[in-house]
Protein: D-2-hydroxyglutarate dehydrogenase, mitochondrial
Organism: Mustela putorius furo
Amino acid sequence: MVSPWKTASVPGLQLGLGCGFWICRSYRFLFRAGAMGPHVVPRQLVWLSRWQAVCAWGASVQHRTWAGVSRIPSLLSSGGALSSSPLVCRSSSSTPPGAPEVVLTQQRYPVTRLPFSVVSSEDLAAFERILPGGVVTDPEVLEASNVDWLRTVRGCSKVLLRPRTSQEVARILRYCHEKNLAVNPQGGNTGMVGGSVPVFDEIILSTTLMNRVISFNSVSGTLVCQAGCVLEELSRYVEERGFVMPLDLGAKGSCHIGGNVATNAGGLRFLRYGSLHGTVLGLEVVLADGTVLDCLTSLRKDNTGYDLKQLFIGSEGTLGVITAVSIQCPPKPRAVNVAFLGCPGFAEVLQTFSSGKELLGEILSAYEFMDAECMWLVTHHLRLASPVQESPFYVLVETSGSRAGHDSEKLSDFLEQALSSGLVTDGTVATDQTRLKALWALRERISEALSRDGYVYKYDLSLPTERLYDLVSDLRARLGSQAKHVVGYGHLGDGNLHLNVTSEAFSPSLLADLEPYVYEWTARQRGSVSAEHGLGFKKRGVLSYSKPPEALRLMQQLKALLDPKGILNPYKTLPAQA
Amino acid sequence: MVSPWKTASVPGLQLGLGCGFWICRSYRFLFRAGAMGPHVVPRQLVWLSRWQAVCAWGASVQHRTWAGVSRIPSLLSSGGALSSSPLVCRSSSSTPPGAPEVVLTQQRYPVTRLPFSVVSSEDLAAFERILPGGVVTDPEVLEASNVDWLRTVRGCSKVLLRPRTSQEVARILRYCHEKNLAVNPQGGNTGMVGGSVPVFDEIILSTTLMNRVISFNSVSGTLVCQAGCVLEELSRYVEERGFVMPLDLGAKGSCHIGGNVATNAGGLRFLRYGSLHGTVLGLEVVLADGTVLDCLTSLRKDNTGYDLKQLFIGSEGTLGVITAVSIQCPPKPRAVNVAFLGCPGFAEVLQTFSSGKELLGEILSAYEFMDAECMWLVTHHLRLASPVQESPFYVLVETSGSRAGHDSEKLSDFLEQALSSGLVTDGTVATDQTRLKALWALRERISEALSRDGYVYKYDLSLPTERLYDLVSDLRARLGSQAKHVVGYGHLGDGNLHLNVTSEAFSPSLLADLEPYVYEWTARQRGSVSAEHGLGFKKRGVLSYSKPPEALRLMQQLKALLDPKGILNPYKTLPAQA
């Protein structure tokens, strides 16, 4: 595309490397010149259209998918340092051809089976009476539910139950509670920390068939649905009615809303719409003994007693089984813009964020960052082209608003200030879907690029924003030539760092230099060793780095109160008790 | 003020009754005509300036104050049907001259003292050792802390403790726990339901001296402070730094942030920034036995185990004493507009809300409604003038955004659509502080007007938005001439109805027609019998109308787990156990 503005260029015009992107410090001036023409106030910024394809060398554009498997989330940031390579993808129902068998969790990890009963034929008959046709024992079908999608942990459950109603869930749990049978609640099985599959032979209780929308209020935007509704289907449902789901995830094509709530999923809309603790209005939960706890209100305000639903948000199925969700959906934004910018240092990344909050205000919907090594990885391994000049840091700024013209104007002012003050040295902007996705791909495909770089040690941390990158620099110095790459990227707007280290192959000495160092460093900053993925099975041992003993004790007391026999998702979330 | 547009009026121009307000259906047309002049795109809508003073007959403009006592919140909506007239105002430290003595709670209500110890001189000496100079036994000083600000309940505590640190709170509670002494945590004592004062002789544990800001992060907007910080002072503090508190209340001049969190206060910014369950990032809480539970994280994301802080938000001091709060502050809006509109029916009130959500999008910050009887009350008793033509309903729409010009444009489009489609029949808009306050006063002074109308029966309910007004109409028919007025108003955007009934004097038969009818009606709609004010002492008996027995049982179990001796804020929140 030949830019009509090219001839009007002035000092400060930036040439993006490799792709011929143009961004001009003086676009404000150009607008003013343009204001003499018939279109005095352009509804859309002219320079927004100056775009060329990001993928210069033929790599296909991917958005929120990974390795071409659209069911699978792209955010592979907390597989755990001990996980096998996430390059091994899982098909939806069985072991992919040629993929190595996943080692049983009980063989790989030091974990002892608790004294639960073993499912008998009598139990199976009882389940069949509760759920005629809903009891699965076929090993082929069970395989997909026994293995997590990262293919790092594997249970050996012999039975999968597929209830359709909360009453059926209640009858199942009442029975299991009575018979001391352990139960693994499972949604879309897209978790990152081994929380969604059995560790031993726990009964898998799937929400797959609990996929009914119960009600939607088109005035208030309140959606009430069963726990097994797939997030993407709910998104489509509410978008047709002028609303959006307050959360969005890479795994949206598979994950269930019940699982999202059970794991307190963060995701891509967190910066804008906040936590599920704020957007979930009500829950129906079946407790370990089969009691149905009906807190499925659709009210925005309700101060009658303790807010019990909060207990279950983020409890990873260990305190109760979420069977229905009431959630507040915000109105659908009419305009989305993405700017991809180069910053000279991390201080400028922070200052650009402050400036964005000030000038973009209510339309700022994402602020992601990545360092130069991340860009090297995606350009080198995935052959994506950087749309901007080489920089120490890059940020992706997304706006979502109700009026395209207004949003563009706000964005242009923000960019003008960022450029003129030197916070940003180069940048490009997209408004249409294809281009938005291409820019997002640069950020979202880092995980994939990392997995092609070698063995990956992954950490998903929350840290005070101003210290967010210090750990990366620190580790780079500490590890020296032991590591191929030490990279930092993530949801800066949420204080969420994805720290990744690669080496040619798994190295115990490198691991020893990483852990507990990373956890201790995070603890000193009062950070979180699991920002958004929970603890599940694989991270339950590191809880104490982020929570004091008094908190751990109270969590254990709550578990004992709500699930005295410990049958719900055992071996998860809380550390094994001595 | 003579409107320059008056001569350009076209059919559809509306004349507001009594005040000479003009609003024109064809202002879009006028803009277009105006666009031929030099100012092609007005930064601010011209018609926004067409304003005349609201208060036609000399009543002073009041905003978020009531009866001239600025310490006292104006939202008197759930004093409870049995409360004495809220017209009796309380001074800050003692009984106002001429005001009747408040009857002791134990004399007015059927409540029995639980077998706690009585404070001895030995206990006082122990407290003095923990808090040198912080032990108050002067009856004059104690009076203000024994009586709620509505002057409806009164305890007889003999000691008020004023710690400065959480360690001091911990030592006090450890002592009280050991000695079986009951404790009434108290913040600003601005609660509506008698939750903030002792029922008998509980020790009053005040957060007044715990008023230190611990930290503020000017990048992330995270404020960490002690529980006794006054909301208004925090607002000022963060506003000077470019942020706002995510909550605002009529009582902000007195209420403490710890009390706000303990009661899960709603307030005026709820529609925009949501619940404290979403905006509070961390808490420090001292448990009943003196254990300090440090969950005072400043992280937006932390999925390491159960989110314990949620337990204490809205638990009204019955599960622990909040000693410090970490809260996420949003950026300060640069522009605020208020539109006051007349609607021909409640269906139109709802449709206007839908339209506002669509066209105002991210800048909609309040949507309040009031019925014609409310307007009659404020015009008749307070001599305020209605700024718009007489209508069956009125709505107040507030926008808050980062750019005045954009916000005005969105607002004008919304109003044009509302007017042209007949949803709104008349209206006026304000942008400057004085006028904003005057429009807000029409909505906020309804409580005051009601209290001048006679004895007031007050209910604060959450209901599904589409049924919100049905209860008002229903009651009007049911009560007939027994009631002077049956009025409905409130935070429609949050589904929160303030239902008020007045009669010449207290009438047992009228009360019998109201209760349990109102609670049963609310329960049938799965509504909440306390939307934003909690249960405290006065409403704890009606919890079961909004929560099922399973929920109540779990609440009681949580209370027993966290406070096995029941020393924390006894007689509050949960119903008395049989």
About this structure: DSSP finds 19 helices and 18 strands in chain A. Chain A touches chain B through 96 residues (CB under 8 Å). The radius of gyration of chain A is 25 Å.
